[in-house]
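We were asked to recover a plausible sequence for a given structure. The inputs and outputs are reproduced exactly as logged, with field labels preserved.

PROBLEM: sequence recovery
POSITIONS: 426
GIVEN STRUCTURE:
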């Protein structure tokens, strides 16, 4: 339903901006579920925030039985066990994980080249060196055979990313870790609830990292979570989020290594906990909607859904729905198709991000002062071509925002627009 209204709303936005803002705020509040708006409250978020505001406990440092502790317990239960450590962002979760796992300045961390640039920046902010690897055309995630060629004397870690809620090949990731004696960090920021061979994303590696920021499966405005089955590592991580102070976890006021303020606000924790309560039902509806779309798109020549290594929609979590595009068979090139979808009010974007080495920091010499390893080796890695990632970004894949699947009206609108585009009708 919302997709059908978007072109009209955009016309109002430019002509009467105050009217537009009023209409959007009112519609989100009163008709969010029917319109397919996201993010939206999934449980009792307003009441939970009000309870925190009326208390004197807004910071996770003070008191017991706080919102973040209840969130950590609920998150651990959702993943089937282990320890959950609430932090302020997914990027901070990556940085803290690398530091707590023993990575030192100059250590290299391998990850796919076309994930969000925040991954490479988190690696650099942990004083380590990002090393890029290409993707496979089939999954649009890490090509472990090509990644093998990037391993060097300073390689210490692998970040396996579940892109857009599709699942990475974790069996290959585990073999890669064992072969090269690495630590394995699962980036499940976009994949809460996705499963790989019966195991939930984020529960396979040495640590799993989640985010509750923009476009994530559940949202708190910001926020992140680290999960691990290692109790001593969990204690270290809880210490590290308080500038490394060991008082709460170890009973000694001391600091052993550089750390950060990684604390999550109690207000954010309250929101995320309520989001988590409503998430299973939300994810079930989303998967059912994508399953309907799967059957529809099978009849559209030149378009194909991508699930990573999942066997179907019931194993993915669909932060966006990734579609493989064969421009020749479909009859539109990617830039034309994206422009036409956006003109019709359909939320669409690139599938994976632009290759990180195309960004100025990595394309030029801006990275050099921040990298403490073999500059010539790094320059070769940053300067080479990544053909599979380049093809996916330029022409081979696009993403449909999950808003398209959050109401029956939105899904019907999406299918209608794609069918019209495929047949060339205006």
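RECOVERED SEQUENCE:
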């Amino acid at each position: 339903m919302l997709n059908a209204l978007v072109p009209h709303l955009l016309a109002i936005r430019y002509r009467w901006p105050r009217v537009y803002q009023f209409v959007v705020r009112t519609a989100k509040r009163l008709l969010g579920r029917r319109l397919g708006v996201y993010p939206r409250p999934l449980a009792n978020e307003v009441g939970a925030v009000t309870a925190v505001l009326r208390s004197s406990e807004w910071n996770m440092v003070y008191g017991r039985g706080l919102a973040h502790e209840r969130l950590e317990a609920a998150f651990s239960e959702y993943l089937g066990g282990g320890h959950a450590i609430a932090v302020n962002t997914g990027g901070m979760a990556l940085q803290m994980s690398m530091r707590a796992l023993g990575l030192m300045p100059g250590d290299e961390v391998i990850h796919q080249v076309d994930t969000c640039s925040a991954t490479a920046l988190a690696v650099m902010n942990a004083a380590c060196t990002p090393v890029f690897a290409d993707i496979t055309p089939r999954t649009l995630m890490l090509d472990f055979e090509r990644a093998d060629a990037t391993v060097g004397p300073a390689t210490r870690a692998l970040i396996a990313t579940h892109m857009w809620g599709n699942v990475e090949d974790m069996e290959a990731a585990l073999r890669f870790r064992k072969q090269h004696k690495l630590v394995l960090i699962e980036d499940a920021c976009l994949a809460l609830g996705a499963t790989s061979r019966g195991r939930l994303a984020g529960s396979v590696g040495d640590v799993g990292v989640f985010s509750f920021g923009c476009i994530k499966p559940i949202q708190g405005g910001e926020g992140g979570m680290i999960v691990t089955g290692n109790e001593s590592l969990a204690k270290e991580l809880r210490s590290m989020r308080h500038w490394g102070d060991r008082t709460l976890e170890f009973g000694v006021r001391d600091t052993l290594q550089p750390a950060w303020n990684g604390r999550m606000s109690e207000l954010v924790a309250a929101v995320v906990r309520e989001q988590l309560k409503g998430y299973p039902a939300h994810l079930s509806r989303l998967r059912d909607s994508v399953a309907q779309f799967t059957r529809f798109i099978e009849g559209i020549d030149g378009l194909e859904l991508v699930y990573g290594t999942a066997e179907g929609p019931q194993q993915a979590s669909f932060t966006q729905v990734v579609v493989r595009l064969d421009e020749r068979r479909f009859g539109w090139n990617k830039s034309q198709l994206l422009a036409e979808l956006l003109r019709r009010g359909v939320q669409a974007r690139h599938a994976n991000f632009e290759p990180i080495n195309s960004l100025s920091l990595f394309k030029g010499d801006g990275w050099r002062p921040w990298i403490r390893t073999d500059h010539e080796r790094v320059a070769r890695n940053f300067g080479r071509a990544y053909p599979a990632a380049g093809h996916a970004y330029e022409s081979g894949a696009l993403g449909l925002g999950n808003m398209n699947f959050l109401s029956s009206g939105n899904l019907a609108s999406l299918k209608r627009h794609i069918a019209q585009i495929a047949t060339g009708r205006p």
